[in-house]
């Protein structure tokens, strides 16, 4: 088809005409011809229907028929002849074929033919348009009224579809004539004709004409005309103006519409219908007002999208005219139903927009909200007064038999718009819609400070003004009046029910701190919420129309209060809230007591609630918002709620196990449905039990219930579905997984649930497999970071899982590496030992060849190993089992080039740099100023990596920093003088207090003197004094008389031997030990083990942690040995005395391992007191004292407790310099064991800026584990820690004592 026939041209002209009609609105809205051309040129980009236009389809078919053969030939030619040059991707082939097709003669001929034909067609269209315009003017002058009427009806309607019908320019004289014809005194036909002409005029011309004032007056008269055709025609003109004009035009039309409505309601009073009569919307005067209000409401909801682009005065005119209309109230106002009461604008607006969407939109943006609130305060406060009055009236006119409320709510929710719409509304329905509209307006108003400032409000028939608290109490009481319905029904009730609407308002208020403080956290409000609970606890029936539904919504509101920090503190500590009841207890205690009685079925006044899973689950959820925080668990722990929930779970679980297998086609029986409900209830209980794991102490309680495996399995099922913890928690399960993984029973539960396998598979898919849906022409980019962004989430998850030595002991202890001779490429790792084998310990060519991305994957493994080895106990286990140092050194040797001189030169690449860093980290021990770790990045310049590599230990001296040799002589200082003068007074009761004063003074004035022999003497004297006093001895005295010869025969494990080697190396570096000190340290460790083993009980457990002896190294004993200068006698003597004191329970982790002094259930749990007590209070105090750091941990999915048990477990080795380690130990012994908690808080406060920074870069875990604590000095924070002692000692120290069985 190279040429067009006459028929083709006619068809093409018709299709072009249709296309232009379709885009008429876009073209007519263009400010200039150039803009219209731009719109047409870019139509394909902006019009989603572009390819559906018939004109476009016709052109596509024409191009295909003309160039199809050419394209096929070129495609075959490229595929055969030039395939080797174009085979790099499909995109290149397309470009080549396109270029050759456009260069062909057929393409040039086609374009020339199209241009010529289209020029003819466009010229024909223009000529026809001019002819039509001339005919149209002739018809306007000469045609009869009927014809003109018909003509305008067809061409000026809202659905005008003729392309040639467009706005024509209109003269001022013509508008003057139209205005005169619209005068109410003129005949109907004349006014009709004038309206028809007005509809064809541009709205901007109409509003800018000199006669607009008169025209506006006449349009308002036509709006109020009883003739529906005239008023409808004016509404059509208004609607067309709203949809096609800017705000400076539409606000004039809107204010005209509102003024007309205002006049209507003022001069044509409509009586409020009686109960029997109701309101018929088909009545002409009602229908006319409803249509006008509907148009007004539509504009109200749309105008917010564009009024910010216009001057504020336009918006203010619109808002003020609306508020003026709604402030119209007849003198009788709200009162009993009767003929004297009038229908008001708000009644109509409530019918059309029952949830006050218009008001919500106006209040959403600050731009309009300030204007609304200013006008309400200054001129139109009556709008709010009547809304409050309507809510109070609805509450006070409550009829106990108001069963039809549900029916009304259902009817209003499901009313239809269209041919089947409702036409009759009863008086009660009108009142109800007005109440719901008022409730929504007030709910939105209370969200904002200036809205709340409108209160208190004076209303009729009430002596005192209505305060914010009064209003909220009224709303809660309305919620209590909800008609009786079962909760199973209420779950599907209409959103317009009073309970649902009030609950939504309360929810909104609870979510905003300032709103909640002013509206919710008030004694009358909390008392009103708790009143039904108090009644039921005292055996009295609650004054609730529907107890199950109302209590569920009460619980929902209480849960949202408890979610916030202020609300939680209110529930836990504020006793004034329930003073009216005379009980003198906090709201939290009341809620927990009620929940306990619900679960135990001990509520005689309401037995049906005891069988309602909805109510029980709702109140457990309220308790959960408290016990999943450290401070909440502290208050609620005496109630043993975990045991109550676990008991209910076991009972329900036994029922759910009897669920029969469903048979296809069988009708489910009632008993089967009950059992299915039991399964759902079991999941609710598991979910709530699981949330005890949000805190360290809560995790211990969860473990003691025996349900930790089931809870973790349930968590894994939700984790895989990417579900949040609950509707109140903002984060997922990351923090909880980290918390659980920090303990032995927790990591075992995670492993058995399949969680770890899923994480490993996900990691392997991201690291080795990549995405399967990526096109071949877009290969995966080479990662620029050591850990690619696609693998970062998996890396951080593994870091969280494997940070604790408990996780390493349970998942890798006594596990050998597979070390296969061949690995299938399709074989995916499924466990941590597989990850170690495939990514970390790469010691064979088979492992290298099994990786698609060897360098990236091995780098990932080395980075993971680096983080794991930061924990010294994990390092000892990995080194003893897998000889990691030997493998890494061999890899470095293999990466060297043999030189002629015989010394190898190392190849510097990503892996060799990683291995060099790791080898130094594993061998060198010391704080921030005691060792130097080589960087992992290359430097710019001629020498990109100046750090020496090595392939055998020890590492080069440049990685070990020199430290001055400590003075072991007695130094002249105040503390030395105190020790020398107090030999006779050591048994004085006040000696310890004096010692603390001197210690604090020495620390704050000159802490450098507290080293060497001075500090050793001070600790000896302090421990001797404390252990000599029965009041200070926490553990009973233990007789230990073992000769050295017997102890020397005791065998040390490989882990212990490596720990001794590291300790000796550190002591030699610090110049505290001699070369021959190894035997003395071995002897001390053996004595320590022998002494502690005599106080241990034999436990039967599946945990590797509890099998045999203490699995890690005794870092505290090593610290004491170094502190005593390698004197084994002094060290052992101090340890034996120290073992009687309470500080030994937390400072010395090996002290209470499987200890007889622990409660049996705690000893069997595998959760040490260092975690369940110290770490718990670290999290609790951190939230109160350094909230930004606490929030940063939450956002990172990491926990402060996990970091603290690593610091404390190895006595801050590798994190602090030796003097600060000594000060940490001495401070906790002399000042008290609770200083261990304060020390962690001080460190985290010191690191606050770094923590916030690394949270932003998503590597907080790696920073805290790998980096030492720079610049921290215990003496700088001693005063801060003393302040913490004054605030928290009573609580922390009391709990440290309570976790143990104090023997007498």
Automatic annotation (TrEMBL):
Domain annotation BROMI middle region: ranges: 173-850
Gene3D superfamilies the UniProt entry points to: Ypt/Rab-GAP domain of gyp1p, domain 3 (1.10.472.80)
UniProt KW 4Fe-4S keyword: no
Domain BROMI C-terminal Rab TBC-like stretches: 868-1299
One Pfam family this sequence matches: BROMI
Biological processes, Gene Ontology terms: axoneme assembly; non-motile cilium assembly
Matches recorded under InterPro entries: BROMI_C, BROMI_M, BROMI_N, PHAF1/BROMI, Rab-GAP_TBC_sf
Sequence segments annotated as region (Disordered): 136-159
Gene name as annotated: TBC1D32
Segments forming domain BROMI N-terminal: 12-138
Gene Ontology, cellular component aspect: cilium; cytoplasm
Highest rank taxon of the organism: Eukaryota
Function: Required for high-level Shh responses in the developing neural tube. Together with CDK20, controls the structure of the primary cilium by coordinating assembly of the ciliary membrane and axoneme, allowing GLI2 to be properly activated in response to Shh signaling.
UniProt subcellular location: Cell projection, Cilium; Cytoplasm
PANTHER family the record matches: PROTEIN BROAD-MINDED, UPF0183 PROTEIN
Keywords: Cell projection, Cilium, Cytoplasm, Developmental protein
Keyword match Signal: no
Polar residues bias (residue ranges): 145-159
Stated name of the protein: Protein broad-minded
């Amino acid at each position: 088809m190279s040429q067009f026939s006459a028929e083709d041209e006619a068809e093409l002209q018709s299709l072009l005409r249709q296309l232009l009609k379709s885009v008429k609105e876009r073209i007519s809205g263009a400010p200039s011809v150039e803009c219209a051309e731009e719109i047409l040129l870019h139509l394909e980009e902006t019009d989603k229907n572009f390819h559906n236009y018939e004109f476009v389809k016709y052109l596509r078919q024409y191009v295909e028929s003309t160039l199809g053969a050419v394209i096929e030939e070129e495609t075959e030619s490229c595929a055969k002849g030039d395939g080797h040059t174009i085979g790099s991707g499909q995109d290149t082939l397309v470009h080549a074929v396109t270029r050759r097709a456009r260069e062909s003669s057929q393409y040039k001929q086609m374009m020339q033919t199209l241009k010529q034909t289209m020029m003819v067609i466009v010229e024909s269209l223009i000529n026809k348009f001019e002819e039509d315009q001339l005919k149209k003017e002739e018809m306007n002058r000469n045609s009869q009224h009927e014809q003109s009427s018909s003509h305008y009806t067809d061409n000026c309607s809202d659905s005008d579809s003729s392309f040639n019908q467009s706005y024509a320019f209109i003269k001022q004289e013509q508008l003057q004539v139209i205005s005169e014809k619209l005068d109410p005194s003129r005949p109907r036909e004349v006014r009709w004709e004038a309206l028809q002409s007005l509809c064809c005029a541009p709205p901007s011309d109409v509003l800018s004409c000199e006669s607009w004032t008169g025209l506006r007056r006449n349009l308002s008269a036509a709006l109020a005309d009883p003739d529906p055709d005239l008023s409808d025609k004016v509404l059509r003109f208004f609607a067309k103006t709203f949809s096609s004009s800017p705000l400076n035009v539409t606000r004039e039309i809107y204010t005209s519409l509102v003024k007309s409505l205002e006049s209507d309601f003022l001069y044509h009073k409509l009586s409020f219908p009686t109960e029997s009569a109701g309101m018929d919307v088909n009545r002409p005067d009602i229908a006319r007002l409803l249509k006008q209000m509907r148009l007004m409401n539509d504009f109200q909801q749309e105008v917010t999208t564009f009024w910010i682009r216009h001057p504020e005065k336009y918006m203010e005119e619109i808002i003020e005219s609306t508020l003026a209309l709604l402030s119209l109230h007849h003198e009788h106002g709200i009162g009993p139903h009767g003929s004297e009461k009038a229908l008001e604008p708000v009644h109509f607006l409530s019918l059309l927009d029952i949830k006050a969407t218009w008001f919500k939109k106006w209040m959403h943006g600050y731009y309009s909200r300030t204007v609304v609130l200013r006008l309400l305060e200054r001129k139109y406060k009556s709008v709010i007064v009547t809304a409050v009055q309507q809510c109070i009236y609805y509450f006070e006119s409550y009829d106990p038999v108001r069963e039809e409320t549900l029916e009304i709510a259902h009817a209003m929710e499901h009313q239809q718009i269209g041919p089947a719409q409702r036409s009759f509304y009863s008086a009660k329905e009108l009142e109800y819609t007005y109440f719901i509209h008022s409730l929504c307006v007030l709910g939105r108003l209370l969200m904002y400070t200036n809205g709340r400032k409108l209160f208190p409000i004076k209303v009729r028939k009430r002596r005192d003004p209505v305060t914010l608290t009064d209003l909220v109490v009224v709303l809660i009481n309305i919620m209590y009046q909800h008609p009786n319905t079962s909760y199973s029904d209420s779950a599907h009730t209409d959103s317009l029910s009073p309970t649902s609407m009030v609950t939504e308002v309360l929810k909104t208020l609870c979510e905003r701190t300032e709103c909640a403080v002013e509206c919710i956290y008030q004694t009358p409000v909390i008392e009103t919420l708790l009143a039904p609970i108090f009644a039921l606890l005292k055996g009295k029936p609650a004054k609730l129309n529907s107890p199950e539904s109302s209590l569920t919504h009460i619980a929902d509101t209480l849960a949202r209060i408890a979610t916030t920090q202020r609300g939680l503190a209110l529930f836990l500590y504020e006793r004034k809230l329930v003073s009216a009841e005379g009980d003198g207890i906090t709201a939290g205690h009341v809620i927990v007591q009620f929940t306990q009685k619900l679960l135990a079925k001990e509520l005689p006044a309401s037995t049906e609630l005891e069988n309602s899973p909805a109510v029980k689950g709702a109140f457990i959820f309220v308790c959960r918002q408290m016990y999943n925080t450290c401070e909440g668990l502290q208050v609620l722990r005496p109630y043993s709620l975990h045991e109550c929930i676990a008991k209910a779970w076991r009972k329900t679980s036994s029922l759910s196990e009897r669920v029969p297998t469903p048979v296809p086609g069988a009708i489910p029986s009632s008993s089967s449905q009950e059992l299915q409900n039991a399964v759902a209830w079991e999941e609710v209980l598991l979910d709530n039990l699981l949330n005890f794991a949000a805190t360290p102490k809560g995790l211990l309680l969860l473990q003691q219930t025996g349900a930790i495996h089931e809870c973790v399995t349930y968590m894994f099922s939700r984790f895989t579905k990417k579900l949040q913890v609950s509707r109140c928690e903002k984060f997922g399960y990351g923090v909880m997984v980290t918390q659980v993984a920090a303990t032995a029973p927790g990591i075992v539960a995670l492993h058995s649930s399949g969680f770890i396998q899923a994480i490993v598979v996900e990691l392997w898919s991201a690291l080795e497999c990549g995405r399967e849906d990526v096109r071949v022409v877009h290969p995966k980019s080479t990662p620029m970071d050591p850990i690619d962004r696609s693998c970062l989430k998996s890396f951080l998850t593994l870091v969280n899982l494997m940070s604790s030595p408990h996780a390493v002991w349970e998942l890798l202890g006594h596990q050998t590496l597979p070390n296969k001779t061949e690995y299938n490429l399709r074989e995916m790792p499924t466990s941590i030992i597989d990850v170690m084998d495939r990514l970390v310990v790469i010691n064979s060519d088979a492992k290298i060849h099994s990786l698609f991305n060897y360098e990236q994957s091995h780098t990932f493994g080395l980075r993971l190993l680096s983080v794991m080895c930061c924990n010294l106990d994990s390092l000892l286990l990995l080194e003893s089992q897998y000889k990691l140092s030997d493998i890494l050194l061999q890899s470095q040797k293999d990466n060297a080039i043999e030189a002629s001189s015989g010394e190898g030169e190392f190849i510097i690449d990503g892996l060799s740099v990683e291995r060099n860093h790791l080898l130094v980290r594993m061998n060198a021990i010391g704080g921030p100023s005691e060792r130097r770790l080589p960087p992992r990045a290359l430097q710019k310049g001629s020498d990109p990596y100046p750090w020496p590599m090595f392939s055998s230990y020890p590492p080069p001296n440049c990685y070990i920093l020199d430290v001055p040799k400590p003075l072991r002589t007695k130094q002249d200082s105040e503390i030395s003088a105190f020790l020398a003068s107090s030999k006779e007074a050591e048994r004085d009761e006040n000696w310890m207090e004096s010692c603390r004063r001197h210690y604090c003074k020495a620390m704050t004035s000159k802490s450098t003197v507290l080293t060497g022999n001075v500090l050793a003497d001070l600790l000896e004297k302090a421990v001797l004094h404390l252990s000599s006093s029965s009041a200070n001895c926490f553990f009973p005295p233990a007789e230990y008389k073992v000769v050295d010869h017997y102890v020397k025969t005791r065998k040390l494990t490989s882990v212990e031997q490596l720990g001794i080697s590291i300790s000796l190396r550190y002591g030699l570096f610090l110049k505290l030990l001699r070369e021959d000190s190894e035997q003395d340290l071995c002897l001390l460790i053996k004595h320590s083990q022998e002494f502690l083993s005599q106080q241990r009980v034999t436990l039967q457990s599946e945990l590797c942690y509890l099998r045999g002896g203490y699995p890690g190294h005794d870092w505290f004993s090593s610290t004491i040995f170094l502190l005593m200068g390698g004197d084994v006698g002094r060290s052992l003597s101090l340890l034996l005395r120290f073992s009687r004191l309470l500080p030994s329970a937390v400072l010395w982790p090996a002290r209470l391992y499987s200890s007889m002094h622990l409660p049996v259930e705690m000893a069997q749990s595998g959760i040490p007191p260092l975690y369940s007590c110290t770490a718990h209070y670290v999290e609790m105090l951190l939230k109160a004292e350094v909230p930004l750091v606490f929030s940063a941990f939450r956002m990172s999915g990491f926990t402060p407790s996990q970091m603290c048990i690593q610091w404390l477990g190895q006595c801050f080795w590798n994190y602090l310099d030796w003097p600060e380690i000594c000060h940490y130990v001495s401070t906790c012994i002399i000042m008290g064991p609770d200083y261990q908690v304060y020390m962690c808080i001080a460190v985290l406060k010191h690191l606050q800026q770094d923590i916030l920074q690394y949270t932003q870069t998503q590597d907080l875990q790696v920073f805290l584990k790998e980096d030492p604590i720079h610049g921290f000095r215990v003496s700088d924070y001693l005063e801060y820690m003393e302040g913490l002692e004054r605030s928290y000692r009573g609580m922390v120290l009391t709990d440290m004592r309570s976790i143990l069985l104090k023997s007498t």
